Amino acid sequence: MTTPRERMVVSAALLIRERGAHPTAIADVLQHSGAPRGSAYHYFPGGRTQLLCEAVDYAAEFMAERLSRASSSLRVLDDLFGYYRTQLQDSDFRAGCPVVAVAVESGDPDKPEQSAPVIERAAAALTRWSDIIEQRLIADGVPRADAAALAMLVLTSFEGAIVVARATRDLKPLDLVAGQLASLIDARTGTRRK
């Protein structure tokens, strides 16, 4: 059973992925999570900034675990693209990546003390995901000197495909990018998609 605090963090991540960080208010998180009204400042004394940071951390960990479980680089692709394919369909193309949503909004320049910690968490999440993909590529035989660049290509192509799929309300960008990345990884690793 999850606690009201955990439900609030998960709700914040889910709302951010569909709405972005700016439109996601604490009242929305309370309503979505079913947490008692007074619990927000009890659990998050740092206010909205703390809640957003923890939502990004939750999303970072969620995806890192998925990436780490993949048995090969091609399974990383299948899992990433397959998961988001389902998320986009189930959400009527509203579900994006909460980490990217936070990064793109870049915060209020008049309140950098509020936005900087959230942006730093987003950067750390993206770096972590790229590192996991890089290690999987190395394990599959991609030379270490090339693995970082290929991992960054995978991550940025994946995130970009999600954005284009959401904007066009079409899964084709995901399918096209997944196919091209699979061919590239296959050529670099000598593995074949099963």
From TrEMBL:
Q: Which domain of life is it from?
A: Bacteria
What Pfam families does UniProt report for this protein, alphabetically?
TetR_C_13_2
Q: Keywords for this entry?
A: Transcription, Transcription regulation
Show the stretches that span the lipid bilayer.
none
Where is each Transcriptional regulator LmrA/YxaF-like C-terminal domain found? Answer: 78-179
Q: Which residues form a coiled coil?
A: none
Q: Which PANTHER family does the UniProt record give?
A: HTH-TYPE TRANSCRIPTIONAL REGULATOR LMRA, TRANSCRIPTIONAL REGULATORY PROTEIN
Tell me what this protein is called: Transcriptional regulator, TetR family
Q: What is the lineage of its organism?
A: Bacteria, Bacillati, Actinomycetota, Actinomycetes, Mycobacteriales
